[in-house]
Amino acid sequence: MSDREALREPLLLFQEIMTCPHGDLSKTLEVHKGVRDRNPLFYVKAACWYAENGAVRDHKVAFLQTLFSAEQLELREAAWILLQDLPFEFIYRIVGEKYPRTMRSAIIHRLTNEDPEVLRFQILRAAKDLKRIVKRLHIPTTNSDNVNLQTIGKELFTKTPELRAIFKRLQEIEDPTEISRILREARLPSYIAVSSLKVRTPEIMKALIENMSPSELLQSLNTLGRMKVLEPNLNLITEKINKAIADKRVGAMRIHQIRKHLDPELVPGKIFDLLSQVTVKKIQRVSKIKGKISIHLDGSGSMELAIPIARQLATTLSLACETPPTVYVAAVAPAKITPVVYNAEGWEKAFNLVRVEGSTPLGAGIALMKRAGEECDTLILITDEGENSPPYFLNEYQSLTYKPQIIIVRVGQETRTLSEQLEKEHITYDMVSVQTADQYSLDQIVRLVGKSPFDTILEVMNTTIPQKPEELKQPEYWKAIR
Q1: Three-state secondary structure of 272-338
Q2: pLDDT band at 261 (very low <50, low <70, confident <90, very high)
Q3: CA-to-CA distance for 260 and 242, rounded, in angstroms?
Q4: In sequence order, what are the residues at sequence separation of 6 or more whose Cβ sits closer than 8 angstroms to the Cβ of residue 255?
Q5: What residue segments make up the domains of the chain, in order of their start?
Q6: Residues of the chain above pLDDT 70, percent
Q7: 290-449 adopts what CATH topology?
Q8: DSSP 3-state assignment of 405?
């Protein structure tokens, strides 16, 4: 058996996971559990690989929940280790009405060993979520010997909190200098602190901006513009926006969407320009692609949803590729879409006249591409796979003298017509299921470009499964933590 044949089953399992209906966690969990039960060794390796390389939040939550609910101790212990580096926003999501003891142990360990400053921020920012999981998991707090758990108990379960009392102090104080001092020292989440303020002087607003994360600042630009505090703090704001380049929580397409909805009467033009530059740098950090990319949009009547996805993907790849992508509409009357300028505005204008109607000849884009004498290294097909008229994709693909990488971006109602045909002919492909053009889905597609599906599976299979340290395997070991 060749290496490729040996990897074929893991490849199909991985594609099954990646085509889960993004946005529907219950169905995603159903698929994940099915793959775990059929091949637990592959599944735990895929979970560890995805924790480092994946982008879709639903998958990160589903992997952890599915590992924690596994019968195999090795899978539960891998989840225990993975949870220690999981952002708190995911931890809040994985704790349900029912929970395994391993999950409780993992969260207790995380809370008892968390950096006090990080824990303090969670108490101020997400008190409701933190309180919910502590109560649901019956985690001892005020009666614990651990300082972190004692802090949680005092702040969330007594009538004399110290950290959260700061909100009451801010409501009572009117001296701007004193308010600014408290804001800087306490480093309160700005969107929470602002609701407690009676006065909002330039000094106070500067202190609030200093406390904002890049993500919070981006979301607040119109609001800060209405308060007329952008121009006086332009250097500070520029510095924070530039930090978004390295912030994994802020995606390129999210920055692009924020820029689109900024009010030019409120926000200075310098910030618009800066956001454009940061978007480009952000995408280039994900990938700098050298090959030629061709996007083929299913132009049948059911594919209205595919138009914004194709437009956003073309915008993203125009920035990520050395050569801008070509775009074809695979329809009864196929067409090539060419913008005047290869940027967001150019693609938006180019897609303005695109309409979807009629039957589904998925090979029409390839036929038109061949007639134009064009070639590509990667062919991205955005479709629901419901092919029902010639020219057929498989026939046109097999007629090519070269064989580009195939990435199927499946949208709309799930069918398996095309992918089953490709599998029958032993033609490899990547598949991603997308329902909206969000930053996570687009990043996931970009990461696949230029990478063989088998290369990804090799990476997955070579991933080391983390082992829980022996000293942490004793029952209720955490009671000894101080």
Answers
A1: HHHHHHHHHHHHHHHCCECCCEEEEEECCCCCCCHHHHHHHHHHHHHHHECCCCEEEEECCCCEEEC
A2: confident
A3: 18
A4: 218, 244, 275, 278, 279, 282
A5: 290-449
A6: 91
A7: Rossmann fold (3.40.50)
A8: strand
